[in-house]
Amino acid sequence: MHVVILAEFASASGGAEKVALESARGLAEAGVSVTYLQAIPGAADPLLDHADIRRVVLGLPDIRSLGGAKAAAAGIWHAAAARRLAAALAALPERPDCIHLHQWTRALSPAIFPVLSGAGVPLVVTLHDYALACPNGVYYRFDRAEPCTLAPLSASCIAAPCDARSRAHKLVRVARTVALRQATRGRPLHVVHVCDASRRRMGDRLGGTTVTHHRIDNPVRIAEGPAAAPEHGDAIAYVGRLTREKGADLVAEAAREAGLPALFIGAGPLEAELRARDGVEVIGWQAPEAVWEILRRRARALAAPSRWYETGPLTVYEALAAGIPVVASDRSGAAEKVRHGQTGFVVAPEVGPLAAAFTALRDEACARTLGAQARADARAAPMTLATHAAALQRLYGGLVVDGSGAMQHSAWPGALRQS
Description:
This protein is an alpha/beta fold and about 425 residues long. It has 2 domains: about 1-220 and about 385-419, Rossmann fold (3-Layer(aba) Sandwich), CATH 3.40.50; about 230-380, 3-Layer(aba) Sandwich (Rossmann fold). It has helices spanning about 15-30, 70-75, 80-90, 110-115, 155-160, 165-185, 195-200, 250-260, 270-275, 290-300, 315-320, 350-360, 365-380, 385-400, 415-419; strands at about 1-5, 35-40, 55, 100, 125, 140, 145, 190-195, 210-215, 235-240, 260-265, 280, 300-305, 325-330, 345.
């Protein structure tokens, strides 16, 4: 089997990139031939160093680097991206059995979808966010700091000043979503949801696209080392970008009310505000190995109190697997893996409920029991790289058997040139 994985980056700067890289590695370790198409030039993660992974760089600019009207135009329809992608696919020496897309908003744009659909092989898209339906990608009102309840591209949606940057930026994103709907209308598309909540929220909101829904967990690499001892932890920990929509400010305030320090690993717009608070420590971004050494030593619990409908933050799964209780927002897809009162707490992203959960975890016996159960649960139903790769292989294999968009090997342009 030969699979093309298309992503915009080849380094794990975020969850979507990390899943794309992990998927490529897991498939290669399972004997699948992988072509990793990287849109934006940059260093490659060591995960791609495998004999069965071929990396191809499209050499496209990050749209954000273009600025002004050029960035807006490329975000709506980046014709050069479509041309380079088509050329890269045509140059492959063998036909892929499937193309799996992980990212498209930073360099590729809706222009790539006709190319992918016209390739004659099944197209799979993992939904790391809601950009296939929602203009700002996250079903969140940044102007109100609350989830959005409007139908995408309705008159109310278009008029809402919900974008994190400006009204003008919102209009560009609306135009991008209109272009996306036109580019995918009537074309078969297989979408992978990383949590059950994503499937419920997306529903039939993908316009006229012919969609088949699938559900596959993200892979979780369990950090090496002994189990955590959260009962000895001295702080409520938060890992990730320091933003209001992710609830970083809620962690600081709720921890203060619970009488516990708050430890932040990451950076972002709220960094200065958080550093100014008493009882808060911000240590910036750290290497993955360092993160888990710090968490095992200092975390009484990991907090993930997203205000937006986050799909599947990997740190939640990783913390549970390490034996660290998690206090998760009831709006986050990752909360599906937290058993309330047994491996952590699932609460509303508000100071009061968060403070109550943190207060309960001040009890050493509570922290110890929840951490041990979290680790046991993670090992009873592991979300390992091998498990993830096996689920992908079953999905791809079923699509190939069904003949979803399949074409003959001899018809593949690269194969013709090689013959």
